[in-house]
Design a protein that fits this description.
Layout: H1 2-15, H2 17-23, H3 27-38, H4 46-61, H5 68-79, H6 88-96, E1 102-104, E2 122-124, H7 126-129, H8 136-146, E3 154-157, H9 160-169, E4 173-176, H10 202-209
Parallel strand pairs: 1-2, 3-4
Helix pairs in contact: 1-2, 1-5, 2-4, 3-4, 4-5
């Protein structure tokens, strides 16, 4: 995400510098909030929200609003250029031979358009489901695409509220992936008697699945 934001900044600095300056101010948050107010039925559509935010910023800064689709394309292309953690590709390759893997994301970066996409059977996000994590609907849709009932599904995620609580409420099992840079995150309070132990990487989860 940081790299994608930087790619957008660089593009705006060249093609619409006044808009880039505007977005670096507190006005960006205000514009986004207004987009959500004006389009409450599309709150889950992150691509629409970002492109509309860009359009409004371009207009306010005195630049051509027709640049918004180009600016968004620069952002989303950079968003899809990912460098996986060292163990990810090998573990996903192994899992893809044993399980149906479905990506569940609240974002708008399509994993199927990344080099890792070949390991996934499907991908769901708010734009193709209509709801976002922690809503049960997005987890149940993922289970349907994987062809398994919720109680036979394992959701792996790094956000205690969105991933762990959301998955558990939908009837799935949950595994908390807590990489070192996310060590500040604390376990959720709403899990009842369940006290999840974090896993440092996918290898650790794979070892548990193999037992």
């Amino acid at each position: 995400m940081r790299a994608a934001e930087q790619a957008l900044r660089d593009w705006l600095a060249q093609h619409a510098p006044a808009t880039g300056t505007l977005l670096e101010s507190g006005r960006r948050a205000e514009l986004r909030a207004q987009v959500l107010i004006d389009h409450p039925g599309r709150r889950h559509e992150m691509s629409f929200t970002r492109e509309e935010l860009l359009r409004r910023a371009l207009v306010e800064a005195g630049n051509d609003e027709m640049l918004a689709p180009q600016a968004f394309s620069v952002f989303i292309a950079a968003r899809r250029r990912v460098t996986p953690y060292p163990e990810v590709e090998a573990v996903l390759a192994q899992w893809s031979r044993r399980y149906a893997i479905v990506a569940v994301s609240n974002g708008n970066a399509d994993v199927m358009q990344t080099p890792l996409g070949r390991f996934f059977a499907a991908a769901v996000n708010p734009e193709n489901v209509g709801v976002a994590k922690p809503d049960s609907g997005i987890f149940l849709r993922a289970c349907a695409l994987a062809g398994v009932p919720p109680e036979r599904a394992l959701h792996i995620g790094d956000d205690p509220e969105l991933d762990l609580i959301g998955a558990r409420r939908a009837g799935l099992q949950g595994a908390w992936l807590l990489r070192p840079e996310l060590a500040h995150r604390h376990p959720p309070d709403a899990c009842g008697d369940w006290h999840p132990e974090p896993f440092p990487d996918l290898r650790a989860i794979d070892q548990l699945l193999g037992t």
